[in-house]
């Protein structure tokens, strides 16, 4: 299979699986416990049906919208995801460039393999930095300052990762940063020579936004679960979030809100947006899907805060359904990560092109010419 054979997001997943050593593929594809929530995040979209109008004159349509004060060419954002150079040597730079080309928000993770400054210099597109709250308060402050100096448009505080989810595929494969060539997985490295040679011959990646911490400082490979469980601050609470919002002073988003009550508290601390998210099913398995929760959250805080429906999106029609349900926009990680792993920036651009086509086609077939016409009357729940 090659890139030109990819016609939907699932095709990129197939190609990524063929190209990545299995510990790396399982890190992207895997989720917590029985992976019920990961599956549900996508299947939830099948529980609601779009109701099209016809003869609406759809020669000209406008797919753009405003998200956190910046224009986005589509109601879709690229969620922040960790260690992208483990998936393809081009890493976050490839994703940031592709996002800018398509006029979309790019989210960079605290655990990125390119620095805050490098990404800021690379793209003039809308970009947010995703912050984990570390026990080391100096580290949190330095990340916030670096983002302020680099001109990031928004800060997204992830609040669903107070401890690591039990990601059993990672436990079995022993995925670490940097990757460790464990004997049990050596066959998969040997049979994926392109990835393995890229990794061995190019600069070894680091986690530059963590300064001297993790891997780099200790010289040891570290699992993502170890990072969460040793470095993150489990005492984080609403006061912490309010303080960070104040220290940052700019556009602020809470990532990982799932309940209507928490959405209300997000409004109270002055957040501009929430990402309704269960971290792609990687944290609390059995959690409800973001799409299922959108209506409840929209009832509670609609109009007071922007609501991003994060996770499970694999189709343009999923994006349309999320907007009809009350979201400002949808967002996702794996939808571009499989493509990054499959073919670097070319892969991400092809995936985004496919999703853009699907969104445009879906809008025309529904008889709508702008995102604002995607309303609750256009959706029926089964
Ligand atoms: C993530 N996600 C994530 N979230 C975050 O706040 N910080 C991070 O560093 C990461 N890292 C990360 C790595 C990988 C490999 C994945 C798949 C996900 C979660 C991400 O931002 C988003 O919430 C999910 O990806 C949404 O689910 P889908 O779109 O992947 O189904």
Automatic annotation (TrEMBL):
<dbReference type="InterPro" id="IPR013785">
    <property type="entry name" value="Aldolase_TIM"/>
</dbReference>
<keyword id="KW-0285">Flavoprotein</keyword>
<feature type="binding site">
    <location>
        <begin position="333"/>
        <end position="334"/>
    </location>
    <ligand>
        <name>FMN</name>
    </ligand>
</feature>
<feature type="active site" description="Proton acceptor">
    <location>
        <position position="279"/>
    </location>
</feature>
<dbReference type="Pfam" id="PF01070">
    <property type="entry name" value="FMN_dh"/>
</dbReference>
<feature type="binding site">
    <location>
        <position position="277"/>
    </location>
    <ligand>
        <name>FMN</name>
    </ligand>
</feature>
<feature type="binding site">
    <location>
        <begin position="310"/>
        <end position="314"/>
    </location>
    <ligand>
        <name>FMN</name>
    </ligand>
</feature>
<feature type="domain" description="FMN hydroxy acid dehydrogenase">
    <location>
        <begin position="1"/>
        <end position="382"/>
    </location>
</feature>
<keyword id="KW-0560">Oxidoreductase</keyword>
<feature type="binding site">
    <location>
        <position position="109"/>
    </location>
    <ligand>
        <name>FMN</name>
    </ligand>
</feature>
<dbReference type="InterPro" id="IPR012133">
    <property type="entry name" value="Alpha-hydoxy_acid_DH_FMN"/>
</dbReference>
<feature type="binding site">
    <location>
        <position position="167"/>
    </location>
    <ligand>
        <name>glyoxylate</name>
    </ligand>
</feature>
<protein>
    <submittedName>
        <fullName>Alpha-hydroxy-acid oxidizing protein</fullName>
    </submittedName>
</protein>
<keyword id="KW-0288">FMN</keyword>
<feature type="binding site">
    <location>
        <position position="27"/>
    </location>
    <ligand>
        <name>glyoxylate</name>
    </ligand>
</feature>
<comment type="similarity">
    <text>Belongs to the FMN-dependent alpha-hydroxy acid dehydrogenase family.</text>
</comment>
<feature type="binding site">
    <location>
        <position position="158"/>
    </location>
    <ligand>
        <name>FMN</name>
    </ligand>
</feature>
<dbReference type="GO" id="GO:0010181">
    <property type="term" value="F:FMN binding"/>
</dbReference>
<feature type="binding site">
    <location>
        <position position="130"/>
    </location>
    <ligand>
        <name>FMN</name>
    </ligand>
</feature>
<dbReference type="InterPro" id="IPR000262">
    <property type="entry name" value="FMN-dep_DH"/>
</dbReference>
<feature type="binding site">
    <location>
        <position position="279"/>
    </location>
    <ligand>
        <name>glyoxylate</name>
    </ligand>
</feature>
<feature type="binding site">
    <location>
        <position position="255"/>
    </location>
    <ligand>
        <name>FMN</name>
    </ligand>
</feature>
<feature type="binding site">
    <location>
        <position position="282"/>
    </location>
    <ligand>
        <name>glyoxylate</name>
    </ligand>
</feature>
<dbReference type="InterPro" id="IPR008259">
    <property type="entry name" value="FMN_hydac_DH_AS"/>
</dbReference>
<dbReference type="InterPro" id="IPR037396">
    <property type="entry name" value="FMN_HAD"/>
</dbReference>
<feature type="binding site">
    <location>
        <position position="132"/>
    </location>
    <ligand>
        <name>glyoxylate</name>
    </ligand>
</feature>
<dbReference type="GO" id="GO:0016614">
    <property type="term" value="F:oxidoreductase activity, acting on CH-OH group of donors"/>
</dbReference>
<feature type="binding site">
    <location>
        <begin position="80"/>
        <end position="82"/>
    </location>
    <ligand>
        <name>FMN</name>
    </ligand>
</feature>
């Amino acid at each position: 299979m090659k890139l030109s054979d990819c016609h939907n997001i699932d095709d990129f997943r197939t190609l990524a699986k063929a190209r990545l050593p299995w510990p790396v593929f399982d890190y992207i594809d895997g989720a917590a416990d029985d992976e019920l929530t990961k599956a549900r995040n996508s299947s939830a979209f099948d529980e609601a049906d779009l109701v099209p109008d016809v003869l609406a004159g759809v020669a000209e349509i406008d797919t753009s919208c405003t998200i956190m004060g910046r224009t986005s060419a589509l109601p879709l954002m690229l969620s922040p995801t960790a260690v992208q150079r483990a998936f393809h040597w081009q890493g976050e730079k490839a994703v940031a460039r592709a996002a800018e080309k398509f006029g979309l928000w790019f989210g960079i993770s605290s655990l990125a393999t390119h620095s805050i400054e490098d990404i800021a210099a690379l793209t003039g597109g809308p970009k947010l930095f995703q912050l984990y709250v570390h026990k080391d308060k100096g580290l949190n402050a330095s990340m916030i300052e670096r983002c302020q100096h680099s001109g990031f448009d928004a800060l997204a505080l992830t609040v669903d990762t107070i401890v690591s989810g039990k990601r059993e595929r990672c436990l079995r494969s022993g995925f670490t940063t940097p990757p460790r060539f464990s004997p049990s997985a050596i066959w998969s490295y040997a049979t994926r020579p392109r990835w393995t040679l890229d990794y061995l011959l190019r600069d070894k990646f680091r986690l530059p936004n963590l300064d001297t911490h993790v891997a780099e400082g200790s010289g040891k490979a570290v699992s993502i679960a170890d990072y969460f469980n040793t470095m993150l601050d489990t005492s984080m609470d609403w006061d912490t979030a309010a303080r960070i919002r104040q220290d940052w002073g700019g556009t602020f988003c809470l990532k990982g809100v799932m309940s209507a009550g928490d959405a209300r508290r997000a409004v109270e601390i002055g957040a501009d947006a929430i990402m309704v998210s269960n971290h792609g099913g990687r944290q609390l398995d059995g959690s409800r899907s973001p799409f299922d929760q959108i209506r409840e959250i929209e009832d509670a805080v609609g109009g007071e805060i922007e609501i991003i429906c994060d996770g499970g999106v694999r189709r343009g029609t999923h994006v349309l359904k999320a907007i009809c349900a009350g979201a400002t926009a949808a967002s996702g990680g794996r939808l571009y990560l499989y493509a990054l792993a499959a073919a670097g920036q070319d892969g991400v651009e092809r995936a985004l092109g496919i999703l853009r086509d699907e969104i445009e086609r879906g809008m025309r077939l529904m008889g709508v010419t702008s995102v604002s016409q995607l309303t609750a009357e256009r959706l029926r729940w089964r």
